[in-house]
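Is adenosine-5'-diphosphate placement plausible here? Inputs below.
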Amino acid sequence: MTDCLLEIDGLTLHRGHKKILDDVKLTLKRGETLALVGESGAGKSTIAMALMGLLDRRAVAIDGSARFNDEVDLFNLPEKEWTRLRGSRLSMVFQDAGTALNPCYTVGSQLMSVLRRKLGLGAKEARERAVELMKDVGINDAVARLSAYPHQLSGGMQQRIMVAIALGCKPDLLFADEPTSALDVTIQAQIVQLILDQTRASGASCIFVLHDLALASQACDRIVVLYAGQVMEAGDCATVLRNPLHPYTRLLKSCVLEIGVEEMTPPEGNVPAYDAMPKGCRFATRCPRALDCCATEKPALIETEGRAIACWNPE
Ligand SMILES: Nc1ncnc2c1ncn2[C@@H]1O[C@H](COP(=O)(O)OP(=O)(O)O)[C@@H](O)[C@H]1O
Ligand code: SF4
Ligand SMILES: [Mg+2]
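Reply from A.M.:
I modeled the complex. Tokens:
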């Protein structure tokens, strides 16, 4: 077994004639936390959904490979295998727990049903494990809360339940896709910290879609910066954010620092429409360092000593 848990290579995704992801490369080691950052519409959720097998394959065409655990190429899995992996080896915390939880069932029954189905626990064991998990995610009064319906809990509590469900089966990989954007600012940091603590304690790897670059630099081992479906820069998180070499990472960082860290406000200008992208570097229309060749010739993602940059004219 190597220490590489996930290796995505050449991930290209078309929706009709729009190329939503363009040759995305990304690797994740066991136990590593990776921050996936970029403005809204960059393709972060699409990557997560593709890796979870949640995209309608009749509506999208996926090229490239995603080797998981040295064994399988996720993009070539039959649906039966996805059902086995999802929720057990691969798990996800969605943006809005209020809509991800089923309003018709108590949170206890939703948690227990996952534990019974995925881990084969009996009713009594599942209940005991559910209570333990709820305590782990900071829910006081766990026994009483088992019989609560989602709407009877606050947004923060609902998200804690989602974390318990996602980590209950000890997945190898957790996706947390903007897990706090539906929550009050005051509890966002607590939930992020909770997810980091819990994934670390369980030894899981985590791909975290985050807007808070300061938090990413403290909490995540590596970072991948995505713009309009292309990877612009990747590497050690603290190093990349301390000294970004790609003009887009620089712009993103300066913008977030100016505005504060709660929300990633788009840097000036607009991302081109997916059906009107420059052939070369997709950032060319907004880049202060663009050269003549940038719009027509795509820079390769070149990796040197663990730092990867796709740019003809980096800092
Ligand atoms: N179901 C869908 N149908 C058509 N286009 C979509 C769909 N989901 C996402 N997109 C488009 O794909 C692009 C990437 O979206 P997304 O992955 O949600 O970005 P992010 O999570 O980085 O904000 C966007 O341009 C978005 O409009
Ligand atoms: S390749 Fe050119 S347009 Fe793209 S980021 Fe680098 S300098 Fe800017
Ligand atoms: Mg998204």
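Short version: Confidence is low (pLDDT under 50) at residues 258-262.
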